[in-house]
Design brief:
By secondary structure, the protein is α/β, with parallel strands linked by helices. It is built from twelve helices and 15 strands.
């Protein structure tokens, strides 16, 4: 009996070892993909072997990340795990908070340092003031627009035992708003606007971090109304000037991607279709492209993503409508500018947009503003990034006279 048990133990170890060898072999023989579509991220690259990398341990660390990212059957096993986690009723799956009709981002529990938040708010206001000063140096006007991200808009949808970051949101705004007011920066808070409009569910996605085209239109409208209140006679798209068209493919939002498409949604994306379209030309990163603001799905596409709007996060876009009697605008920010850009261009002669996370032009933000001197410079930032110094949280240096 003991001999049989011993044989079975050896057999189990041998099978397990063969499994590891086979999995490693298949991983190395598999296609060397660089991007995970469902996870919406770049995969680790195969490390380059060198004696120095082995000695300092960096080679083995990089190899571990590579094997983890490229393991044979990794997506299938991850999808199975997501299905099992949902069947077991776990509230958080793949860093997504799963509620009955909504997917929200998991927020780590955090200890808030009030002095640090206050200092970040002061630094951010100084950064924005430098952009404002540069814009006003040639007669332009600067505006800062804050828009809720999904966890802010739906903070009441979190279970009480999870972190909805409500205190961080409150504390950030408590310090940033006075700092902006002290420096005289024109400021528009879309959370307040959405609340005044009834905090409607249709303004934000249930499966993604962004607002919908309906929320983007209200953001556009609020911006134009603010500019009009400051004396600019701008045309504005009214509800009678367009219609919303819902697309057929389901919306593969960022949360569903993280769930590896194991969560069903009825949500669809819509576009704003003009009754009387205006002709325009468009360049992306200096290269002329097709004159459209929507990357419409093809007939065989199973899903549509947020890249529908402006084709995704383009570093620099210029739309020229050829109406020289109208002013120009530069809008910069993160991905929340995309859906708004699909509408903003209609009210201006030229619309420039910059996403500094992807912008690789020869000119800095300040140099770009100084060269093109747009009549309006508008920064659109989501609440999660209001105090971030990365990407679009930069300031500019004033040009030397």
């Amino acid at each position: 009996m003991r001999r049989l048990e011993r044989v079975l133990e050896i057999l189990f170890i041998a099978v397990f070892f063969l499994f590891l060898v086979a999995a490693t072999f298949l991983t190395y023989q598999s296609r060397n993909e660089t991007y995970s579509y469902f996870e919406n991220r770049m995969l680790a690259a195969k490390p380059q072997y060198s004696r120095e990398a082995v000695l300092d341990g960096s080679y083995f660390s990089a190899l571990e990340k590579y094997l983890s990212d490229h393991a044979a059957g990794r997506i299938a096993m991850s999808r199975l795990k997501a299905i099992l986690d949902q069947a077991l009723g776990r509230p958080v799956v793949n860093d997504v908070v799963v509620q009955e009709d909504i997917l929200l981002p998991w927020n780590d529990y955090e200890s808030l340092w009030e002095e640090g938040i206050a200092a970040s708010a002061e630094q951010m206001s100084e950064n924005l003031a430098s952009v404002r000063d540069l814009t006003e140096s040639y007669g332009g006007k600067y505006y800062y627009v804050a828009v809720p991200c999904q966890y802010v808009y739906y903070e009441d949808r979190y279970p009480s035992y999870l972190n909805n970051r409500a205190e961080f949101t409150r504390m950030s705004m408590a310090y940033l708003k006075p700092a902006l007011e002290e420096k005289g920066i024109s400021y528009l808070d879309m959370k307040e606007v959405f609340d005044q409009l009834g905090h409607r569910d249709e303004y934000y996605s249930h499966v993604d971090n962004h607002y919908s085209i309906f929320g983007a239109y209200e953001t556009y409208r609020a911006i134009i109304e603010r500019l009009r209140a400051d004396g600019e006679d701008l045309p504005m798209l009214e509800a009678t000037d367009f219609s919303y068209v819902e697309l057929d493919p389901p919306y593969l939002g960022s949360r569903i991607r993280k769930m590896l498409d194991t969560w069903h949604t009825e949500e669809r994306l819509s576009i704003l279709q003009l009754n009387d379209p205006i002709p325009f030309t468009r360049t992306d990163n200096g290269v002329q492209t097709s004159s459209t603001v929507y990357a419409l799905p093809g007939e065989t596409d199973e899903w549509v993503t947020y890249n529908l709007y402006m084709g995704g996060d383009v570093g620099n876009t210029v739309i020229d409508t050829g109406r020289e009697e109208l002013p120009s605008i530069l809008v910069y920010g993160d991905s929340f500018t995309n859906a708004a850009e699909c509408i903003l261009y209609w009210s201006f002669d030229e619309m420039h947009s910059i996403d500094l996370r992807n912008y690789s032009g020869e000119r800095s933000l300040g140099e770009y503003i100084q060269q093109f001197q747009p009549d309006y410079v508008v920064c659109i930032r989501d609440y999660e990034s209001l105090l971030s110094q990365d990407g679009n949280g930069v300031g500019v240096e004033m040009p030397v006279a």
